[in-house]
Amino acid sequence: MLRKDYLVRAIEEITEMLGTIVGLKQQKKHPEALQELDELYRAQFRLNSLLLGTLSSKDIAELFRSGGIIEADRLQTLARLLREEGDLLLDSGKTDEGRMRQLKALHLFLEARQHGADPSLWQLDEEIFSLMAKLKGCPLDPDTERMVFGFAEDKGRYDLAENAMYRLMDQQEMDVHEGIAFYERLAGVAPDQLEEGGLSAAEVQEGLAELRHRL
């Protein structure tokens, strides 16, 4: 209970500070907004922007492991701040740095979700979909791509899952058998549900036949 109360208070403080940061962004006061974010990193996580820019997504996630368990809600809160920093950097013309922050935010949101994060805390699924759209066309590392694959299938966005699957196969990070298993799962989905998810039953059968032909 004490830990939950602490998290609630932290979220309230962070939400208030994010309002300030958004206001500074609207006024084009990017250095001031980035400084506020850096102070948030330090106050809430004992981290800083420079360190977060240096560490890999996997290394950042490991910092939130306690007793063998990922502190998923704290991790998704950090991801929310990284996403905000990415938006700020992009808005100030620092494209490469901004994209890197967004890529890390996407990975950490997905990692947090896999470890049971509360999806209502920061509208987790919406954040993931938003970042996926913003990063369309940007290469993802295989670990992030595989989580995108699982997330998209879980949320019924079968078209996005299929795209991730083929990207993984192109990188030789997923074998044909896994692709066949994906299409076989979709073959059991109702046609109207498939259509809502961006694929038709015919496309599923075509994809399944094409992958079986590769064996």
Could you describe the 3D structure shown?
With 215 residues, the protein is an all-alpha fold. It is built from 12 helices and 2 strands. The chain has helices at 2-26, 30-45, 49-54, 57-62, 72-91, 95-114, 124-134, 142-154, 158-170, 176-187, 191-196, 201-214, and strands at residues 65-66, 69-70. It has a two-stranded antiparallel sheet with strand order 1-2. It is elongated and about 55 Å long.
Which keywords apply here?
mainly alpha; 12 helices; two-stranded antiparallel sheet; 2 strands; single chain; 215 residues; 2% strand
Number of strands: 2
Strand coverage percent: under 5%
Task: Give the oligomeric state of the chains in this entry, treating copies of one chain as homo and distinct chains as hetero.
Answer: single chain
* H/I helix tally: 12
Poorly predicted spans: none
What characteristic shape results from the CA principal axes?
A: elongated
Sequence of secondary-structure elements: HHHHEEHHHHHHHH
Pfam families: DUF6483
Protein name: DUF6483 family protein
Organism: Paenibacillus woosongensis
InterPro entries: DUF6483
